[in-house]
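Task card 7
Instruction: Convert sequence to structure tokens.
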Amino acid sequence: MEFEYGPIPPSKYEEVIQHLRQHFPDEPLNGSVGLCKHGQECKALEHHNVMTLKDGLSVMAVDSNTGEIAGVALNGISRQGEVEEGLKEVEESDSREFRLIFGLLFNVNHELNLFQRYNVDKIFELRILSVDSRCRGRGIAKELFMRSEIIAEEYGFKVIKVDATSLFTQKVCESLGLTAVKSVRYKDYKDEKGNLLYDVESPHDYYKVMLKELPDHSTKG
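Output:
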């Protein structure tokens, strides 16, 4: 099985969404909360995914023989102030599952204030990394990640960031030189009755914000 890699054009957006409906629900944090279910529409997340695709930075792996999508990396631009807008959206959402996942991500990122820390006004975010369950273990995720980093450099980003919610993603990040700037343990989050909010299956015990500073090419030519 061979794969071809390239950018995701608008003509492929619907196919990407269909791929994610089938394969992204396996993601451990989602699995523990149940925001997205296999094969079903997930409006809350799919709106964010389409907006990310429209940033024009995402990449896909396609099976050379069948033409089917084997994996995707949805990459977007995070701008100053958007985390705070996201927190408002979380507060207004009537979906408990959406509030649990995005409330965690946005609150941790708000505390970190990466824009001030790295003196930037935009950050390259690898937001969704998904591989067809039939194609896993073939290095697709790592290749998508490497190509994403090249895009980030080409567009002049100084920082690439991943909200790494699974051990799998964290290992890919580490292999490509990203380091954790924040690590939180899922079992530390409980409701007022002492019940776990995130019953994520081991070994996916931590959510880590992982980051890498990219070379500055602004002085070239």
